[in-house]
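Example 4.3 (complexes with small molecules)
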Amino acid sequence: MLSWEQTPSLEPMRCCRAWVEINLAALRHNVQQFKGILPASTQLMAVVKADAYGHGAVIVAQAALHAGATWLGVATVPEGIELRAAGVQAPILVMGAVNSPEEMQAIAHWRLQPTLVNPKQALVFSETLAQLDARPVGVHLKLDTGMARLGFPWAEAVDFVRFVHQLPHLKIDSLYSHLATADEPDTTIMAQQHQRFTTAIANLRQQHLLPPRLHLANTAATLANPALHYDLVRVGLGIYGLYPAPHLRHRVNLQPAMQIKARITHLKQVPAGTGVSYGHQYRCDRPLRLAVVGIGYADGVPRVLSNQLQVIVKGQLAPQIGTITMDQLMLDVTHIPNLQEGDVVTLLGHDGQHTISPDDWAAMAHTISWEILCGFKHRLPRIAVEQPLPAPATAHS
Ligand SMILES: *Cc1c(COP(=O)(O)O)cnc(C)c1O
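Answer. The structure with pyridoxal-5'-phosphate bound is encoded below.
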């Protein structure tokens, strides 16, 4: 596939149809907000997996490191390689499972740091490194304290750490775990997971096996409770300017970094009674001015939001009508005068007095904002911009 970065002839077409705008000033601001609630001894990992939640991994990594993050977190080895190939030097934790010798070799070659979740995996990794005659690799041991996803059983932490400790070629850099309910107002389960993590730590300390770094918190936990900060916090969603839950809004002022924009490609008057788009799910009850916009579900606009979306056109809200198609969607713009083909439509973001957030889409689509952000496909070029941030409307505690 052609890449926008590598193909000069595509460059002038970047904003012809639809694109993702990433405000670097917002990214830096959000990183600084998190730095502001962390003690100096706690480092900030910017989680940039899934192409930085759809924002573009390299530009986000660079902005986050510039603003004070010192670690990067990815899910897969290729995601880590993309950062290294772009010249990123910061330590990179691969949070997903790594089992194949090919992945292990790539980790050594690109100086990535893997997550290990059982002794056998650690042994194979150590043997692979021995064959390569590679330098020792920093590894991160993950405990399952109640998420039931990746991780060694927390109650057996001492055995696990002791085993990895005696392997050549591996240097334990951290011990970590992940919380299942950090964004919920009821903290019962989170407290239980925290307790298990604390118990594992106490047992390890007693055996003089405590790894040099401990971490537990995602965005929600970082906002919920300073006792969860430890030596490092792994912040994803918050970097992008969204809150994991309404009750966690008060500690930091976050600014959404992503806007989704597209152009009107066709304008026309249609008579009353016109059926619009596939299935004629919308029928005009009056004559209306209809705008076709060059963005669709193949770009990441959820089709399930057909006939529910509002977008912003010249500072005014306009309803989306008819079924959202793969590459295009339609608007009723009867009430907005003087439009022309080529005018810009804001699907997510702000224009004039109006703002539309991924949280709005997530609520309508019965999903979470994380999934909305990750849904924007590579057909949309990512355009980095520097936009001034709105002054905070309220004082923050
Ligand atoms: C994705 C992920 C995070 C970041 O989660 P947010 O809720 O987006 O902050 C942190 N830790 C692990 C292990 C993850 O997989």
